[in-house]
Write a structure and sequence with these properties.
By secondary structure, the protein is of the alpha+beta class. It has six helices and five strands; from the N terminus they run H-H-E-H-H-E-E-H-E-H-E. Strands 2-3-1-4-5 form a five-stranded mixed beta sheet, with helices on both faces. The longest helix has 18 residues.
Length: 191
């Protein structure tokens, strides 16, 4: 009584491996849904403990040009390598790197103040640059680079997790506006 093309065991496979659904299928790092859930959980914990929570938003510079120049398969390979480089930049198990969408990644750094987040953003930037992935269509370097936005807050009732994401996103776009290949930190007093 099964429908054509439907294997009755396929639903069992999904239930048996729930972790697979929380990873991005291409890069194998956390996906957006897993990031959102982890952010909510760590937000509550950091609010209770009055400890800082930082985000590092990352965007591959001129990625559309990369895809146009080298093709989408090369673009996918590039995304995998950047994801690995960012993930390898983390030191603590509670920290998380996720593919946020397209060529954007986000790192959540628990119990990390602004200086620690800045140091990690610079480590991520350098690690991606050290991959030396050719990018002849870039305006900033002959190889692939990233821009990053850093934001830190000690969660409190007047601030929502979405505000921290927005702050990191605005810092990222400030870095892009200032020439790319760098990071910028958002300021809480502007929220």
């Amino acid at each position: 009584d099964t429908k054509p093309g439907f294997a009755p065991w396929s639903m069992t496979a999904v239930v048996a491996w729930p972790g697979r659904m929380s990873n991005d299928t291409l890069t194998q790092i956390a996906n957006r849904g897993r990031f959102d859930a982890a952010l909510r959980q760590e937000w509550r914990r950091c609010a209770r403990d009055e400890s800082p929570l930082s985000l590092v938003f990352c965007d591959i510079d001129y990625f559309k040009r990369f895809n146009d120049t080298y093709g989408h398969q090369a673009g996918d390979e590039c995304l995998v390598r950047v994801a690995q480089a960012m993930d390898e930049s983390l030191n603590r198990p509670a920290d998380l790197v996720a593919r946020y969408g397209g060529e954007e990644f986000i790192a959540m750094l628990v119990d990390t103040g602004v200086e620690g987040a800045r140091m990690l953003a610079e480590r991520m930037r350098q690690r991606v640059e050290s991959l030396r992935i050719e990018h002849r269509a870039s305006d900033v370097a002959p190889h692939l680079t990233v821009s990053l936005g850093v934001a830190t807050v000690v969660p409190r009732p007047a601030v929502r997790p979405e505000d921290l994401v927005d702050l990191a996103d605005r810092a990222l776009y400030a870095a892009k506006a200032e020439g790319r290949l760098l990071y910028r930190a958002g300021r809480l007093d502007r929220m």
